[in-house]
Amino acid sequence: MSETGKRVRALDLKEKKKRGEKIPVLTAYDATMARLLERAGIEVLLVGDSLGMVVLGHETTLPVTLEAMVHHTAAVSRGASRALVIADMPFLTFQVGVSEAVRNAGRLIQEGGAAAVKIEGGAAMLDVAQRLVDIGIPVMGHLGLLPQSVHQLGGYRRQATLERDAEKLIADARALEAAGVFAIVLESIPAEVARVATAALAIPTIGIGAGPHCDGQVLVSYDALGLYDGAVPPFVKQYAQLGEEIVAAAKTYAQEVRDGRFPAPEQLSARNALP
Ligand code: KIV
């Protein structure tokens, strides 16, 4: 956790960038995972709207509702004692108008217990980002591949591969920084574009499929831990295969119940010994 044991704040991330300290971020959707990731020293937890795909069984993030995000953010906040909890603003909760965005971000902070929100988009979202920051809500930006724009983008494709798109991304990143965002996620862009953006900003960039030059990295925890059994993006490194461990453990349990080996007599006496 933070070296001082204090709660990590959005502004601490800029200090980490100044010190050249890389920032590992993982997504979390419930209290148990938040506690486990904190124990592993993860200081920044993103309640991503990837929730829709890896937990709720949707094909995209588009069906995720504000209610679902508030519910899961509140669970993560209960589990996290020191990590910075950032809640994604789901589709249509910040694009319709600034006052609606303020009300919805406010719910993620007030009811969800998040300390910051994340919004997808560049120039088109500046007024929203600016207003949220002005009223005291820390905002993380998100550029490059925007999963909420999957239909417009024609799929989950690498972005900013053409020079003019790369220039636009860097201009958007500068504009978001000027609007007051505290960090920017860069998703699925060439490493060189991420390098230039990272060098151009005083705030940290957090990459996902954006190469090694970003100030931090974020992965969807279910992908990185091998829990999600759907398609995993090629840039993901899987640090475990927990899905396979769950299948094996559940198989053993089922077999033991069928065979009458569980519960064993010692399990019964252990249970009877409980107060
Ligand atoms: O929803 C999410 O998990 C995200 C990360 C992939 C950055 O936005």
Question: Your description of this structure?
Answer:
The chain is 43% helix and 13% strand. The protein has 275 residues and is an alpha/beta fold. It has 2 domains: 10-240, Phosphoenolpyruvate-binding domains (TIM Barrel); 242-275. Helix 2 (31-39) packs across helix 4 (66-79), helix 5 crosses helix 6 and helix 8 packs parallel to helix 9 (191-200). The longest helix has 18 residues, at 242-259. The site of 3-methyl-2-oxobutanoic acid has 10 residues, from loops.
Spatial order of strands in the largest sheet: 1-2-3-4-5-6-7-8
What binds here, in terms of ligands, is: 3-methyl-2-oxobutanoic acid
Helix content: 40-55%
Backbone structural class: alpha/beta
Task: Give the ordered list of helices and strands.
Answer: HEHEHHEHEHEHHEHEEHHH
Domains, number = 2
CATH architecture descriptor of the largest domain:
Alpha-Beta Barrel
Specify the biggest β-sheet. Answer: 8 strands, parallel, barrel
> Low-confidence runs (pLDDT<50, min 5 residues)?
none
The 3D shape can be described as globular
CATH superfamily of the largest domain: Phosphoenolpyruvate-binding domains
Distance between the termini: 35 Å
Number of helices: 12
Global mean pLDDT: 96
CATH class designation of the largest domain: Alpha Beta
